[in-house]
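Let us work through a complete example step by step.
Step 1: write down the sequence.
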Amino acid sequence: MPLQPLYEALGPLKAEALPGLYALSGPDVTGDFKGKAEISFWNKFLEGTPSTLQALASLGKNETQSDSDFEQIEAFCYKEKDAGKLVVYTTTMGIVRETYNNCMKVKQILRTLLLKYEERDVFMSNECRAEIRDRMSCEHVLVPQVFADGQHIGDVETIERLNETGELRRILKCYKSMDACTTCKVCGGYRLLPCPVCNGSKKSLHRNHFTTEFVALKCMNCDEVGLVRCTSCQ
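Step 2: predict the structure and record it as tokens.
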């Protein structure tokens, strides 16, 4: 396949960023990246901003990458995963009352504005805890943190300030939904359910083909505490 027409179609900046894209996603479009098909990831690349493309183009060129480059690349990756979503990282652990109350405060503001959001509980999920650390580039992250379409909106202070000025309603109006305050009838609003494979035990039974005995294996369908996300409200 001639490369010159491809280079001309992409333009010099996208062509320079292409190796960086493939370093993240792999060179084919049959796999999976951040829970999305790579063909969709490619479409996001074509819509990428100049700063994102420059960050991708810089991958591998220097011994170390700048913090701004990492921030641009991380935002690009999560923008694909969280496309069209309003995501709130919270905790249901009530031991630290101030943190718990701040989470409740942010959720109440979003519900008052009839904004539909996806809650990710860092107390119940190691995956969510690792994810928010990665997104904030910090080992000790304070929740709540709000993201819209993969972009960081802010913490409780930012949300309160934006709400008081009316700016929050404006920037998040696309997430407004009349069923934002309804409680899921399947999980009761907890967003998590016991694994249907192991019933929350984390053990999966497998019959040995050479004997009549069953062997207990670790269930791969659920998280570390035997829970799965409710598909009805996610």
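Step 3: interpret the result. The radius of gyration is 21 Å.
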